[in-house]
Amino acid sequence: MLWELNVAPKHSHFLWRALNEAIPVKGNLFKKGVKCDPLCPRCFNHVETIHHAFLDCVWAKQLWFSSTLTINLNHCHYTNLHDWVLHMFKQTDKASREIITATLYGIWYARNLLVFQGKNLPPHEVSTTILAQLQEFQCHCIKKNIVNQNHSTGNSSNNKCWSPPPKGTVKINVDAHLGDGHWFSGLILRRWDGNAIGATTRLHAGSDEIIQGEAYAINDALDLVEKLCLPEVIIESDSQIFVNLVKKTRVRKNWGRIVERCISFLEANPSSSISWVNRVRNRVAHELAKWA
């Protein structure tokens, strides 16, 4: 999962080293006999281990919560980075894994600025820089691919922006965002000519399971389809994990009923679909959920 991510090579290589306890946090240096203060250079309350530096330090927790993933680590029960990353990678889609990887590198980069240059950057500023750098790298990769694929047609542009549905069909893009202990879903309805015909947001009880929030958003879309009596719809979500689960017959989770509802909906409406789309093409729904 790590090596297939579209992130800067130094980010994926760094995470590989961190997962193998191969980065020089002060606690590791102290154990190896290096004369240094083993305490965390930010809080000075705990030994700087890999787990503390990336997950347990107050500054790191603030950064994770201020990221676009709004991860709350106050009740994290994982005691090492490896298990936490493995859990998050299994629970999230590729785009979220890329943000997690870039964020871990950004935390280490900001830590080194503090240790070696005395620059103590606020968490929200670092979080904004991390996302901007990730998007810049991915944008560069997209442009490079376009240059290398001169034989491709206009279909290449569909990978970067929203594409309209077939005539007579309505497309509903959905996304979810965790904030203030609640899940917020954003939905945008558009016609085949590109015109928006409606937008809405919904509120749900919070949970630290990201896929549950995505399930809520798709369930909201189904509610809207029934309320408006839409005959043919395409529901798009950037949660690849949930969309893949719709292909299964049973999911033993508290949100498994939503998967069953999706399956029943598709069986009753063969002209409709529930599809995965990347975050860039789902941007309006994403921004709606964040705004809510």
Automatic annotation (TrEMBL):
InterPro entries: RNase_H-like_dom_plant, RNase_H-like_EbsB-rel, RNaseH-like_sf, RNaseH_domain, RNaseH_sf, RVT-Znf. Residues 183-292 form the RNase H type-1 domain. Pfam families: RVT_3 (PF13456), zf-RVT (PF13966). Residues 1-64 form the Reverse transcriptase zinc-binding domain. It comes from the Eukaryota. GO terms for molecular function: nucleic acid binding; RNA-DNA hybrid ribonuclease activity. Gene3D superfamilies: Ribonuclease H-like superfamily/Ribonuclease H (3.30.420.10). This is Ribonuclease H. The lineage of its organism: Eukaryota, Viridiplantae, Streptophyta, Embryophyta, Tracheophyta.
